[in-house]
């Protein structure tokens, strides 16, 4: 018994400290994984479940999954309602930090915005040392201006060329001013695209989209959309849409957060992003209800932006138009525009005057600014049962119907807005009662006038292309009655007519100015400044003509600054003809002074390259390049000059012109001086070479002569005397 007692005493003396230290469980008394969410709607207990479900969905959509069991909602016992805030637990501190970044200042609905704080911050701020400590002043590093290229002293434009695997960005101006601006080392991308105002250039990679900009062309933003194929910027460059033919998949362990897809996005393939923050706003699917050939005919852009970036809309063919607010991407007024049979729609562009009003309203402290004009949507519906086809103008967000026009025997409609929103042309393809032939009508809405009057231009042929003159009241059409139009065979070029129309303010209709018959042109390209137009034959294997036209050639008779308008039709004159074999793309530069044509290897592989022409059709530059793919002018934003400043410049144009003419003269003299110096140098080099050659030749000839003389001097005549005994006779001589 005493031995057992002794053993028990020995057991009590064993040291377990090493084992305890090894397996000790640390008690975490911090609240790093807990957040306080303020700005929550105040509800009663009956709505708790619905509210928690919606909150969880919002957090999951931003890549921060949370469950209702992880949320604690405090209640006011006196009123039986919530207190407007809640506590939310996450798995760890990293998830809580992600949620804080993604959801702080997130608009939950029109009246509530989430404000997130860490739970530990309450105690930290309560016990904060109130002693003032001088903060360290960080050295200021100025950011690059993303529109620095606009300050070019020579006022040059830029363009990008994509050839093979290389991209090059060039300055373009006078011949002496054209030079390489930047050659990036971007690799493994699909193609490049400028943003609408030229601030960014986008490259599409397998992993997603990268935006570049600034004088050093540093990366500005990225959007992680794997296998992206298409991209579309909003007009004001605040947002961007990306599309892939592959549905979104979020594998296990992938990064989560506001800049990445979440499990809720799986299966979708269209994404909307905020450019400044890089955050994903929402995803959609473009595959719903489409099969086979319909998928290949997907309309792009699939989302259409309002001109002020406040709304983005998409059509569900035959059912509705859904308009979403930005940046929340909530459905406006929580309901779509239910329109039976709707086929297509377009937003009305803002005029320069309306855009100025929008900017005034948006500016802080703007006084005297009028109410910003409402946006407008035009849409059309086909004939359904006994209802005729119809074109409708709708204000938005007011949703008031402004004008409707019934149409009959309609096969197809296309909506064409003038870039200032002054006119809307509905190109209506109509069929005869037997439906054996197609003809075309142009229904033109004069949007800026009372009651939206409509003018009709009736045509007997099919219209294959329509284009408004920018900021003008003219338009051009390409029409044809060629029987090969529906099914052209190889080597067959469709014969077309090109016609120009002008609004006659006296008769209040559009009259024909001139028709150019028996053409092969199939594309109309107006100069962005109007007046000049190029008619091109694009995509043909046999024809590649370019016609340069001036619609005001003899129109302006300026007397004392006044413009006298004469016969409109006689003012249309040809400036020149040109040809670019295999041309696939035709594009004016932003100034309207130069035109670029290109033949892309994406379409064919014969004589790929690009050419630059002036507005008269004179070729300035031509580059034939193997594996050439893309040529794009860099767009310019709207001018910062006011209307009064522009008028003042026009008024004093002669003074400004004199300065530019002097610069041109100096440059011409410099060029001539340089050319003369070059010629003199070449002549001097030629004379020096000639003299040197003569000298060398003389030395060679003299050396040969000396050698010849020396050889003559060295030559000796040697005479050899040979004695030979022929016969020996001995005689005796007597005395």
Automatic annotation (TrEMBL):
Cross-referenced Pfam families: eIF2A (PF08662)
InterPro entries: EIF3B (IPR011400), eIF3B_RRM (IPR034363), Nucleotide-bd_a/b_plait_sf (IPR012677), RBD_domain_sf (IPR035979), RRM_dom (IPR000504), TIF_beta_prop-like (IPR013979), WD40/YVTN_repeat-like_dom_sf (IPR015943)
Occurrences of domain RRM (ranges): 33-121
Subcellular location: Cytoplasm
UniProt keyword NADP, yes or no: no
Record flagged with keyword RNA-binding: yes
Transmembrane annotation, as ranges: none
Chain spans, region Disordered: 697-717
GO molecular function, one term: translation initiation factor activity
SUPFAM superfamilies from the UniProt entry: DPP6 N-terminal domain-like, RNA-binding domain, RBD
Keyword vocabulary terms for this entry: Cytoplasm, Initiation factor, Protein biosynthesis, RNA-binding
Segments of skewed composition (Basic and acidic residues): 697-712
Major place of residence: cytoplasm
Free-text function comment from the UniProt entry: RNA-binding component of the eukaryotic translation initiation factor 3 (eIF-3) complex, which is involved in protein synthesis of a specialized repertoire of mRNAs and, together with other initiation factors, stimulates binding of mRNA and methionyl-tRNAi to the 40S ribosome. The eIF-3 complex specifically targets and initiates translation of a subset of mRNAs involved in cell proliferation.
The protein's assembly and partners: Component of the eukaryotic translation initiation factor 3 (eIF-3) complex.
HAMAP family according to UniProt: eIF3b (MF_03001)
Record family assignment: Belongs to the eIF-3 subunit B family.
UniProt-recorded name of the protein: Eukaryotic translation initiation factor 3 subunit B
């Amino acid at each position: 018994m005493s031995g057992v007692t002794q053993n028990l005493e020995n057991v009590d003396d064993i040291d377990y400290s090493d084992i305890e230290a090894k397996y000790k469980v640390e008690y975490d008394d911090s609240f790093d994984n807990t957040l306080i969410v303020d700005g929550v709607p105040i509800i009663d207990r009956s709505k708790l479940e619905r509210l928690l479900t919606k909150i969880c969905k919002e957090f999951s959509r931003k890549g921060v999954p949370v469950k209702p069991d992880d949320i604690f909602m405090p209640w006011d016992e006196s009123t039986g309602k919530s207190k407007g805030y809640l506590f939310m637990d996450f798995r760890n501190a990293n998830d809580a930090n992600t949620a804080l970044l993604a959801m702080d200042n997130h608009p939950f609905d029109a009246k509530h915005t989430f404000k997130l704080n860490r739970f530990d911050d309450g105690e930290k701020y309560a016990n904060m040392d109130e002693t003032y400590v001088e903060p360290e002043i960080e050295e200021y590093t100025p950011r690059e201006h993303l529109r620095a290229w606009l300050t070019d002293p020579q006022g040059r434009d830029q363009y990008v060329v994509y050839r093979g695997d290389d991209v090059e960005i060039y300055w373009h101006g006078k011949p002496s001013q054209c030079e390489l601006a930047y050659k990036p080392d971007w690799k493994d991308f699909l193609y490049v695209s400028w943003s609408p105002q030229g601030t960014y250039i986008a490259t599409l990679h397998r992993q997603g989209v990268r935006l570049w900009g600034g004088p050093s062309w540093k990366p500005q933003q990225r959007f992680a959309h794997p296998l992206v194929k298409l991209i579309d910027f909003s007009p004001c460059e605040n947002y961007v849409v990306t599309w892939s033919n592959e549905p979104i998949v979020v594998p296990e362990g992938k990064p989560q957060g506001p800049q990445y897809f979440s499990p809720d996005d799986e299966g979708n393939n269209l994404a909307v992003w905020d450019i400044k923050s890089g955050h994903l706003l929402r995803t959609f699917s473009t595959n719903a209800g489409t099969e086979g050939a319909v998928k290949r005919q997907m309309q792009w852009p699939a989302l259409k932006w309002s001109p002020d970036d406040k709304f983005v809309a998409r059509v569900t063919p035959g059912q509705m138009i859904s308009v979403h607010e930005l940046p929340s991407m909530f459905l406006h007024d929580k309901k779509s525009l239910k329109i039976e049979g709707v086929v297509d729609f377009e937003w009305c562009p803002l005029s320069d005057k309306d855009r100025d009003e929008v900017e005034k309203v948006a500016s802080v402290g703007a006084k005297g600014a009028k109410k910003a004009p409402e946006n407008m949507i035009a849409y059309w519906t086909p004939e359904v049962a006994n209802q005729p086809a119809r074109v409708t103008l709708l204000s938005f967000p007011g949703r008031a119907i402004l004008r409707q026009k019934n149409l009959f025997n309609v096969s197809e409609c296309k909506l064409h807005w003038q870039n200032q929103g002054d006119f809307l042309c509905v190109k209506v393809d109509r069929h005869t009662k037997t439906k054996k032939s197609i003809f075309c009508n142009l229904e033109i809405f004069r949007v800026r006038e009372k009651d939206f009057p409509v003018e009709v231009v009736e045509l007997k042929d099919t219209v294959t292309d329509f284009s408004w003159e920018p900021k003008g009241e003219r338009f051009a059409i390409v029409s044809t009655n060629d029987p090969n139009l529906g099914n052209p065979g190889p080597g067959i070029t469709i014969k077309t007519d090109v016609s120009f129309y002008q609004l006659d303010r006296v008769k209040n209709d559009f009259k024909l100015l001139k028709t150019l018959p028996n053409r092969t042109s199939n594309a109309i390209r107006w100069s962005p400044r109007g007046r000049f137009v190029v008619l091109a034959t694009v995509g043909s294997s046999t024809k590649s003509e370019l016609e340069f036209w001036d619609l005001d050639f003899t129109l302006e008779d300026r007397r004392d600054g006044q413009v006298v308008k004469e016969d409109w039709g006689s003012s249309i004159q040809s400036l020149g003809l040109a040809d670019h074999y295999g041309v696939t793309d035709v594009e004016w530069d932003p100034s309207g002074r130069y035109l670029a044509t290109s033949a892309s290897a994406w379409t064919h592989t014969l004589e790929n390259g690009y050419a630059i022409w002036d507005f008269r059709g004179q070729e300035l530059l031509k580059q034939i390049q193997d594996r050439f793919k893309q040529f794009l002018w860099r767009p310019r934003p709207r001018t910062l000059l006011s209307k009064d400043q522009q008028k003042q410049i026009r008024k004093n144009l002669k003074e400004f012109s004199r300065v530019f003419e002097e610069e041109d003269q100096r440059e011409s003299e410099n060029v001539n001086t340089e050319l003369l110096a070059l010629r003199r140098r070449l002549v001097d080099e030629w004379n020096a070479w000639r003299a040197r050659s003569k000298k060398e030749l003389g030395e060679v000839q003299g050396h040969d002569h000396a050698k010849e003389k020396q050889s003559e001097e060295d030559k000796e005549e040697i005479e050899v005397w040979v004695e030979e005994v022929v016969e020996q006779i001995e005689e005796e001589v007597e005395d």
